[in-house]
Amino acid sequence: MQVVLENQCDYFLELRLGADTDSVPLSNDRVTADLAELVEEQFTNGVLAGKLPAAPETIVAHIEPVYSQEPVVEAIDIRLTAISNGHDTVLSQRYQCGRWVRTAQRKVTTLRSEGSLAVDEPTYRMLIASRTDEATVAPPVIVPPSIDEATLEQCGVRALGEGRLAPDRPVLVNLQFESEAVAQCEQSGVIEIGGAVLGRTIRLAKPLTGTETPVVTVLSTIVFDSRHSGSETRFHFHPAALAEAEQIANMRGLGEKVLTVYHSHGWAGHCGNCNANPDCPLAESTPSLHDYEQLLEQLFTSKTTLLPIAGRKLGAEGQRPVLQVHAWQRGEMRPIHWRRYSA
After folding, report:
1. R_g of the chain computed on alpha carbons
2. Mean pLDDT split into 10-residue runs, the chain, 343 residues
3. Whose CA is closest to 41, among 295, 337, 334, 299?
4. What is the number of structural domains in the chain?
5. In-domain check, residue 103
6. What is the pTM of this model?
7. Smallest Cα–Cα separation from 324: which of 342, 333, 340, 336?
8. Contact at 8 Å (CB) between 331 and 161?
9. What domain range is 211 assigned to?
10. Omega of the bond prior to 214 within 30 degrees of 0, cis?
11. Bridge partner residues of 27 (DSSP)
12. Measured at the alpha carbon of residue 221, what is the angle toward residues 219 and 224, in degrees to the nearest 5?
């Protein structure tokens, strides 16, 4: 598969002490290479949504900045053309986030730890585009998503339960999976816990009701292992334990593999108010910068990766942890709808 990136700008991430270009600059990092990650995500999601062919001969990505006030970039437009058997399929997407956002977060953390920036001192992130004839970007090595031809029954799905499906990214989660994830989070309190997640991404004969694509991801079970370790702010996955989880997947005989990992973000059961307290110090059940660095940039780099996290969710009903499933959408991991199933 040939990948061609048409790009005429260099991109720079600036941190400043003010919200305009006349303010004091703190740092300037070239982030043009981040465009490749967006192209990979757009292609992967296009295949999963049934909008792009899985194995085109050529992918051409035309990239253009959208300015709020030149040279400050508000968003990046990518028009992706997949060429297969002489036929062109076009998919366009606008991105306001990308790896440069995490670069800025890391930079702020570093500046505060060095004392160059006060703990309560605000910073402003700016993405700057500069037209140039030398704005080359190394194209990403794109691997088409691994999709099995199978039925829900072959994945152990007996009946569908409550929940909603994203039309272009349907995800099914075993009811027992959710129950264990929430219970383990609750029992472990503020200490983060986690494990390998087994499942399959399959192509059905026809889309499920309310969806646009026959490609469905089934998250079937969590494999906990004592070699994984957590603290109040971090969780670390043991490579050997993840490898053994793959062996367990093979023994189950459902065609599963280790698709991703699950972890919690802590829970203070003694107060019973985590979901209603905006001042709760515990992190919500959304990906942290550490999650991106450890999991999504090292262990599970595919843009098909889903990330289930249990913990508090401000505004959620009830007094128990909430399981949220996140997927790559427009340059970052965002929560998506999913539906329960019984095995």
Report:
1. 21
2. 93 92 89 96 97 95 95 97 95 97 93 89 94 80 93 96 97 97 93 96 96 98 92 89 95 94 88 82 90 93 97 88 97 97 96
3. 334
4. 2
5. yes
6. 0.93
7. 336
8. no
9. 148-342
10. no
11. 15
12. 130
